[in-house]
Amino acid sequence: MTELGPIGATHSALDTGTDVAAELEELGYATLWLAGGQGNNLPRITEVVRATSRIQVASGILSVDRVPSAAVASAYAELPAGRFVVGLGGAHGPRPLAALNDYLDEVEDVVPQSARILSALGPRMLELARDRASGAYPYLVTTDYVASAREILGADRQLAVLLSVVAETDVTRVREVVRGGSLGFLAGMPGYAANFRRMGFTDADIADRSDRLVDGLTVWGDLDGVVARLREYRAAGADQVVVPLDGVPREWWPELVKALA
């Protein structure tokens, strides 16, 4: 895997077609992250890789509980070298670290460490990402978290941070949008709740989706305000910030690349 560029993207259209993928490649985005959801999106990843010429296409994230390791290895082997970034996570059983380790054992003869990245939040999972992958791909984190994750990963591992971005200058509206979005259900998931506590948020913050929690985990504002916050994440230690482009105006797409280059 080549080094991650400064900005990557997600977009719901990547799940259904390839026109947006080609457009984002032309604009200069470094990586396209295709959400794994609850299923196997390897066929979509293959389509997007073949519809583009150079951009990295990452699974963000394939669940090791749902997608057979043999299918991942087969897809990786069939695609051009350096194009498919194998993002793995989703081990929800009683021994998630052991499950991920076993899965990595099963793919490592085909998928090199340099092409693997792990969904990681807690320190033990970050250590696994450091030791057995090219780095980590966390979501809903603060800049302080990024700095601490960088310390665990070390300087020679990748850190791509998926952010919650709202193109809105009215903070009341921002908070409504975020509470009704992914934070609304992820705050109830044990792994995310535990990580919010590690970042200094209280049980009350988590239960109430408090202003403090929402504000700490969200990038919002006009274009200049959003760019400034993205740069803060980069300065804290993120190799790449990943922007969900469904939530920002289309005219921002090229401007974000120019600003982060």
Spell out the blueprint of helices and strands.
Blueprint: E1 7-10, H1 19-27, E2 31-34, H2 42-51, E3 56-59, E4 62-63, H3 69-78, E5 84-89, H4 96-107, E6 116-118, H5 123-132, E7 135-136, H6 143-153, E8 158-162, E9 164-166, H7 171-179, H8 182-186, H9 190-198, H10 203-208, H11 211-217, E10 218-220, H12 223-236, E11 240-244, H13 252-260
Parallel strand pairs: 1-2, 1-11, 2-3, 3-5, 4-5, 5-6, 7-8, 8-11, 9-10
Helix pairs in contact: 3-4, 12-13
Q: From N to C, what is the helix and strand string?
A: EHEHEEHEHEHEHEEHHHHHEHEH
Describe the largest sheet: 9 strands, parallel
Cα gyration radius (Å): 17 Å
Low-confidence stretches: none
Strand content: 15-25%
What is the number of helical segments per DSSP (H or I, 4+ residues)? 13
How far apart lie the N and C ends? 19 Å
Mean pLDDT: 95
Number of strands: 11
Structural class: alpha/beta
What's a quick, concise take on this entry?
The protein has helices at residues 19-27, 42-51, 69-78, 96-107, 123-132, 143-153, 171-179, 182-186, 190-198, 203-208, 211-217, 223-236, 252-260; strands spanning 7-10, 31-34, 56-59, 62-63, 84-89, 116-118, 135-136, 158-162, 164-166, 218-220, 240-244. By secondary structure, the chain is α/β, with parallel strands linked by helices. Strand 4 (62-63), helix 3 (69-78) and strand 5 form a beta-alpha-beta unit.
